[in-house]
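Write out this protein's structure.
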Amino acid sequence: MGMHYYRYADGSVSERDYSGDGEPDVPEGASEITQQEYEEAKAALDAEQAEHVAAIDAEAQERARQDYEALIAAGIPPETAARMSGYNPPHPNVGSAQKKGT
């Protein structure tokens, strides 16, 4: 009874709450691991996935920036180029110490 944790040949992990009589069958291709091993492996896999997603997002943002710059070079107004490319260029006054009207 209770939680059981498994690691598969491909490195993935799973957990299963078992409330039946006796011990559950270990899933095919898996080996039972401790809760700590499961949590450590899951944290590592989650971090790896987050890094992968961040890399994909950075690549997409760079492509959008390049598209934006190409549209500007083609004579498209910046506001329109931003909408067309999906790129959100930094505002020139962000972080500026200047106040309006000065």
